[in-house]
Design a protein that fits this description.
Blueprint (H helix, E strand, L loop, with lengths): L2 H16 L4 H17 L4 H16 L6 H15 L8 H7 L3 E6 L6 H14 L4 E6 L6 H12 L3 E2 L7 H15 L3 E6 L7 H14 L3 E7 L5 H12 L4 E5 L9 H9 L3 E5 L7 E3 L2 H9 L1
Parallel strand pairs: 1-4, 1-5, 2-3, 2-4, 5-6, 6-7
Antiparallel strand pairs: 7-8
This protein binds guanosine-5'-triphosphate and magnesium ion.
Length: 293
Amino acid sequence: MFEKLKKAISSFSEKVSRALYSKKELEKFIYELELQLVENDVAYEAVVAITSRLRKLVEDGALRDRDDVLKALGEAIIELFKGSEAIDVFAEARRSKLYKVIFLGVNGVGKTTTIAKVAKLFRDRGFKPLMVAADTFRAGAQEQLKVHGERLGIPVFIARYGVSPAAIAFDSIAFAEKRGYNVLLIDTAGRMHVDQDLVEELKKIVRVVKPHRKVLVIDALTGNDAVEQAKKFNEAVGVDAVIIAKADACERGGVPISIAYSIKKPIIYLGTGQGYSDLEEFSSHKYVEYLLK
Ligand SMILES: Nc1nc2c(ncn2[C@@H]2O[C@H](COP(=O)(O)OP(=O)(O)OP(=O)(O)O)[C@@H](O)[C@H]2O)c(=O)[nH]1
Ligand SMILES: [Mg+2]
């Protein structure tokens, strides 16, 4: 996971520790780091935020050894995650009678799989989750969620094809309330964030459901388009939290930084495989520690 970014950072710190007394050399390595960060999916503005901080420290003569450099780099990255409070979905769910979460994202990013993983987390913590197949756009989408539900022993709310997603989502609320479910996890069609009709439909679902949280699922392999997706969904309906799926298959590794920096929303989990338990809690401190190690 994220090997390339990790390697770029370790190579930077190696070179820097040999060049600490030459500002000119340091500048050269910071420039090389810049290129490496961009190449590994760190959005350009975020790169500039990181390296301008390093440059200032170089200017001030504040970097004396390799540890200083690594510490400064780590702090500069962590800084980019600031501006959005982490959310504790379980605490929130405990406080509400029916905790409603809607999952958004472009097609194929891993929404349906992620919902199954999240449903399992809630179930394992003693909640009674219901998954809702509000994806009537793609053939087979409802069945896919149903298969996950059967494997996990977690029920799935399904409707006839042709029923609008907003109507399905709306009906699922009454159903859940009547049957004593306390967590509602709603799957939506993988819409292209550029398709205006689908965006309108998404807005409608959100209006009808009034979810407690809107979770955006991003594919770690998307690269720079991930930022575009995050911004578009955030503008359209507002994103509360992000889950980055397929982190296990991602070598580059800068997407968490780019997303956090561009929309200032917390990343709550990383998807780390295709199994139902392959969901890892995300923390910026853990992420940076991993990258710098
Ligand atoms: N390696 C890996 N694969 C994943 C992960 N999450 C999802 N996948 C795979 O990604 C593929 C697409 O996942 P889906 O859950 O169907 O994605 P989706 O966003 O619901 O897709 P649409 O409904 O078509 O929009 C599947 O083959 C999943 O097994 C992950 O964290 N790691
Ligand atoms: Mg799906």
